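in:
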């Protein structure tokens, strides 16, 4: 399908169902190898970016486009609508199928604005959100466009960046024992010793996951962390921080690999997604909120460094 479907006339519920079904299908395909749609190779073009605005997609759209890229084997995360590719002088090839993403129309006293992070969770009084579906095509589906070559930082630099990133979060990180976890009563992240991990990338992927849980403390983002294993609340908190870890690892150019110990979560994730078509939107929205909080901490740490050097 190559017609210009810049804005699809679909109801919000239809969009929720279509996006959720796409993600469920991606999870089911990879379940045998524990490969989820948010696992990626950490390359510099992992994060999906819009070709026209040059801005990264956000929230559930990241997950939707990761799933699409994984299913179709796209090497680059560069996307645009049919019209956006045309305006660049490129042409979507005949017979190519587009991929659904979600934008939100926000109506309030000041008129309408549009956002694309799939975040319907931040609703407030005097504001209404309307979901609209858009179809986008990957750069691999068009003629007349060549993706730019992206520089690859040496792994030692990427690891050093990850170390600085985690240190700037201001979370108490302790080492010892055999399990990685966040301990709410002590407000600390407990990690096995660095040498217990396959490599530094695996260590930081797990550390970011646990720091994701720590972000939910009352004095941080104040999420409900009381869910017990097996409950829908527990499953969605795990899904949220898995997405968060994948988002930040993509920013840091670190790969996120399947972990067999996640096998126990897959069935519960699928159960929640099948029973609530908005669940993955909520999880992705919360993951984006955590990512924004973590990135804001980097800016704060940088300001402190500048003041300290003055």
């Amino acid at each position: 399908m190559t017609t210009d479907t810049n804005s699809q006339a679909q109801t919000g519920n239809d969009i929720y169902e279509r996006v959720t079904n796409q993600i469920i299908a991606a999870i089911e395909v990879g379940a045998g190898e524990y490969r989820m749609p948010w696992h990626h190779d950490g390359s510099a073009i992992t994060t999906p970016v819009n070709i026209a605005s040059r801005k990264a997609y956000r929230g559930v759209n990241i997950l939707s486009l990761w799933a699409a890229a994984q299913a179709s084997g796209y090497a680059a995360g560069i996307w645009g609508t049919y019209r956006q590719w045309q305006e660049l002088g490129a042409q979507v090839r005949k017979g190519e199928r587009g991929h659904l993403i979600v934008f939100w129309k926000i109506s309030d006293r000041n008129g309408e604005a549009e956002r694309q992070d799939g975040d319907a969770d931040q609703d407030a009084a005097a504001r209404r959100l309307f979901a609209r579906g858009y179809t986008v095509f990957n750069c691999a589906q068009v003629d007349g466009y060549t993706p730019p070559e992206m520089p690859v930082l040496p792994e030692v630099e990427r690891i050093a960046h990850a170390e600085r990133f985690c240190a700037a979060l201001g979370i108490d990180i302790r080492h010892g024992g055999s399990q990685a976890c966040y301990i709410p009563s002590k407000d600390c992240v407990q990690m096995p010793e660095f040498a217990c991990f396959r490599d530094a990338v695996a260590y930081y992927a797990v550390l970011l996951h646990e720091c994701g849980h720590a972000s939910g403390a009352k004095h941080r983002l104040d999420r409900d962390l009381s869910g017990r294993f097996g409950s829908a609340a527990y499953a969605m908190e795990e899904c949220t921080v898995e997405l968060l870890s994948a988002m930040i690892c993509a920013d840091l150019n670190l790969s996120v690999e399947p972990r067999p110990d996640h096998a126990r979560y897959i069935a519960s994730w699928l159960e929640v997604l099948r029973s609530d078509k908005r669940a993955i939107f909520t999880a992705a929205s919360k993951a984006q909120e955590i990512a924004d909080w973590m990135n804001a901490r980097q800016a704060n740490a940088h300001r402190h460094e500048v003041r300290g050097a003055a």
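note: The chain has two domains: 12-143, 155-309.
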